[in-house]
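Budget justification aside, the reviewers requested a transparent look at the raw inputs and outputs of the sequence design task funded under Objective 1. We therefore reproduce one unedited record. The lines immediately below are the structure tokens for a 550-residue chain.
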């Protein structure tokens, strides 16, 4: 049987297609591409199929090859099409290889960069152990720069950036926590110098503060071994000051990359996150013997830290929680103008000498539970926006809360606190509830010109020598007529000096308040005169407050 030319052409074209397709499939299944790259297999297959189609297809469709027939034009079109497809595929493969090469080069470069960073990291960590302060400082700046590089690396995911940076941050914090015995040596040397100076002075010429300090120092060194004063401590001081500069430099670099803090006229605090805001910082148990003033501290984790000599946090800003639980301050402590944006914990803290929190802003919770103030405690004009707790705190000398502000909807607790010296609450504003339950006052307590906008209680309070002073001359304490008087209590311990009460009338109501004070309407505040316009006359009838056993 003979076949028509067109039928035979179709058959041959089909056979060619099947054979080429089978070869491609075999190449995929048998990994022939290892001997001949698959790309070239495809090129060959397309060329064969294109050539076969150019030869057989005109025959299959009964197109002649004469000058006026369509066969030549069809064949030419098929050849051009095949050539174009081959060209496009070739260009695509070239582009793919170029991209692969580029990616490989980029990956090689990235690996090289990472390796170089880790090499610098290793070198910088080793520098921290160098005897020379300049070398240690160089290592710190290198580590800081590496953190910046990691968090700016767009080739990493954010969590990877954070992980790489946190490793370096942990090293910097570990250096801050590392012991420095010379700090204790210098502190002891200066304390003994101060002791000798006080002992040489005539006792009658010493101030009350100096006399108190003398007793503290005598008690400190009474059980110590015989002390040998260094002949020359100049070299030690040089090393000491150099290390101060090195360790403060770490905090300075952290501060530059921490959140930005701003305070408006109403003392509202606004915080804008910085480059290092997402890291964790741990300075617990650290020896701190250098100033930390004018710094922004993202997370003040100073629990169980020991602060040698005088501590300086003036104008510092804590954007996160500030935790000083169990910390020891051996010298004067200065937190003036410090901003605590989140919770501030001073639980079980020992302030050996003066603790100054004047003009400090506690934006949230402030906890001084069981804190021991060995010297004067100064909270003059401090602002407590959130709850403030001074439960079981001990004030060994004078406590100054003059012009401090405890804001509305927050309580201040002085329950079971002990005031050995004088306590000053002159001009203090208590916008929330005030608790003096079970509080012990050994000397004077002053409330002149104080403002009470919330309920207050002195239940079981003990005034050892003197009753509290609520008024002197024209400076009278003020009590809001909006107070929930059922929750207020002016009773004290039966063996205590009493709070003298009087009657004050405002509108059609009569109030029992401490003698010499006034009752006011908080809604009558005149912004122009900075005074309340609706107040009672000074209460005049005197009576003893009810006495109750604890």
């Amino acid at each position: 049987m003979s076949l028509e030319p067109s039928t035979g052409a179709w058959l041959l074209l089909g056979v060619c297609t099947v054979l080429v397709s089978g070869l491609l499939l075999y190449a995929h299944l048998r990994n022939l591409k290892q001997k001949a790259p698959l790309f070239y297999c495809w090129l060959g297959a397309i060329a064969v199929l294109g050539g076969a189609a150019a030869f057989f297809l005109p025959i299959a469709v009964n197109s002649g090859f004469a000058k006026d027939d369509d066969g030549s034009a069809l064949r030419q079109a098929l050849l051009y099409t095949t050539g174009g497809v081959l060209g496009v595929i070739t260009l695509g493969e070239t582009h793919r290889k170029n991209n692969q090469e580029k990616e490989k080069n980029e990956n090689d470069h990235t690996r090289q960069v990472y390796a170089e960073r880790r090499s610098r990291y290793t070198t910088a960590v080793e520098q921290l152990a160098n005897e020379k302060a300049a070398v240690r400082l160089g290592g710190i700046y290198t580590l800081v720069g590496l953190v910046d590089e990691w968090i700016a690396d767009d080739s990493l995911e954010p969590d990877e950036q954070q992980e790489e940076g946190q490793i370096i941050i942990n090293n910097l914090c570990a250096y801050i926590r590392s012991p420095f015995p010379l700090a204790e040596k210098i502190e002891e040397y200066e304390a003994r110098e101060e002791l000798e100076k006080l002992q040489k002075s005539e006792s009658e010429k010493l101030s009350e503060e100096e006399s108190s300090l003398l007793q503290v120092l005598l008690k400190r060194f009474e059980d110590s071994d015989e002390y040998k004063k260094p002949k020359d401590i100049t070299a030690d001081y040089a090393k000491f000051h150099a290390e101060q500069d090195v360790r403060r430099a770490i905090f300075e670099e952290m501060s530059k990359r921490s959140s930005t803090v701003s305070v408006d006229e109403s003392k509202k605090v606004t915080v804008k996150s910085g480059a290092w805001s997402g890291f964790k910082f741990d300075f617990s148990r650290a020896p701190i013997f250098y100033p930390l003033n004018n710094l922004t501290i993202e997370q003040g984790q100073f629990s169980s830290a020991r602060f040698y000599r005088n501590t300086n946090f003036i104008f510092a800003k804590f954007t996160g929680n500030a935790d000083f639980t169990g910390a020891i301050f051996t010298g004067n402590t200065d937190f003036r103008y410090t901003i605590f944006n989140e919770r501030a914990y001073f639980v079980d803290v020992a302030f050996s000498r003066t603790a100054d929190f004047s003009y400090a802003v506690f934006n949230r919770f402030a906890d001084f539970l069981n804190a021991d103030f060995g010297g004067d405690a100064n909270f003059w004009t401090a602002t407590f926006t959130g709850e403030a707790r001074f439960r079981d705190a001990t004030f060994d000398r004078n406590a100054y809360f003059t012009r401090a502000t405890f804001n509305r909807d927050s309580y201040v607790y002085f329950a079971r606190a002990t005031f050995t010296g004088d306590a000053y609450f002159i001009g203090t504003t208590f916008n929330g509830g005030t608790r003096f339950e079970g509080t012990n006052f050994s000397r004077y307590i002053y409330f002149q010109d104080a403002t009470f906008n919330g309920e207050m209680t002195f239940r079981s309070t003990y005034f050892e020598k003197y009753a509290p002073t609520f008024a002197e001359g024209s400076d009278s304490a003020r009590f809001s007529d909006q107070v929930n008087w059922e929750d207020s209590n002016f009773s004290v311990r039966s063996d205590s000096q009493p709070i003298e009460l009087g009657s004050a009338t405002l509108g059609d109501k009569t109030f029992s308040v401490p003698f010499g004070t006034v009752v006011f309407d908080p809604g009558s505040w005149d912004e122009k005169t900075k005074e309340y316009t609706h107040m009672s006359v000074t209460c005049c009838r005197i009576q003893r407050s009810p006495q109750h056993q604890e």
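Helices lie at 5-29, 38-60, 71-127, 133-151, 158-177, 181-200, 208-221, 234-256. The chain has three domains: 5-105, 181-227, 304-548. Computational costs for records of this kind are itemized in the attached budget.
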